[in-house]
Fold this sequence. Notes:
It is built from 14 helices and 13 strands. The protein is of the alpha/beta class. The strands form two sheets. It has a seven-stranded parallel β-sheet, with helices on both faces. The protein has a six-stranded parallel β-sheet with strand order 10-9-8-11-12-13, sandwiched between helices. β12, α11 and β13 form a beta-alpha-beta unit. The radius of gyration is 21 Å and the shape is elongated. The relative contact order is 0.11.
Amino acid sequence: xxxxxxxxxxxxxxxxxxxxxxxxxxxxxxxxxxxxxxxxxxxxxxxxxxxxxxxxxxxxxxxxxxxxxxxxxxxxxxxxxxxxxxxxxxxxxxxxxxxxxxxxxxxxxxxxxxxxxxxxxxxxxxxxxxxxxxxxxxxxxxxxxxxxxxxxxxxxxxxxxxxxxxxxxxxxxxxxxxxxxxxxxxxxxxxxxxxxxxxxxxxxxxxxxxxxxxxxxxxxxxxxxxxxxxxxxxxxxxxxxxxxxxxxxxxxxxxxxxxxxxxxxxxxxxxxxxxxxxxxxxxxxxxxxxxxxxxxxxxxxxxxxxxxxxxxxxxxxxxxxxxxxxxxxxxxxxxxxxxxxxxxxxxxxxxxxxxxxxxxxxxxxxxxxxxxxxxxxxxx
Length: 380
């Protein structure tokens, strides 16, 4: 198939999943065309079968805000016509599904059918989409989609309830390449690789996010403060965003800044995650929890919150530990209980990797998308 993919090309989970999906589809022999305002950061530019089409946006003085959604719709229609795309797959409903709807209508006027599939990722439904300014158009673009998928059952049910969507929604979970996200098998090699983050005998905790308020990065620092007061430990924070400065100040105020590594945005997180003992993910909401899955595939269990789609990913007490959002004390106690019981931690590490391989590997999930595309095309 020839598939057009549109996503936010930044470090958010929806962009990561969309990019990885395109890479996996190309590896299966499909032709993938990314259509966005900049090249997704995980694309190397050398991937066989993958093409990138930039969306130019004119910034006339008349426009207070450049109309990206209209420029995107025009570019979608152009690329679909020039490269004979079979369908568009848009990730994150706002504004991508609306742009795809416009592109479909533009081509339909010329006798060309262009179906589009919308994948719902989280805040496009739980936060932005519920804004009264966007709710009617978001609902309409979802209803009009030729196919709709959701990354978790939680998000599917919330979409149906909050948007009164009547069309079918297919749950196709996020996934991970289990060959790329994998543990370091040689323990001596792993110890050596993490020397710049933690000395031998020190625990290494990790957090990966976009540092937005919903990720509760300050809770990560507070949890770590309690852990490091009890046992020798270090914390690595991967990512960047609006709460980074507040996290740095809190670390200084608590006197633990020297034990925290602010690593910023990292492209090869698959090389960092296997170095950790535990991932901390105390988010107030996660529609799926991609960071937790990537860690699990690297044999790193997560201490996370019992919110959104996380209980669908993490089996509490087996592949990780779940706690109420905001309960810093409980999460710190949970981390200490694992780090002080190496046998239990190792069992949980093994179970986490096993769960990722059995349920969420790209080899299992990407074919579900291919079958869904075919189902959409067959239904036209």
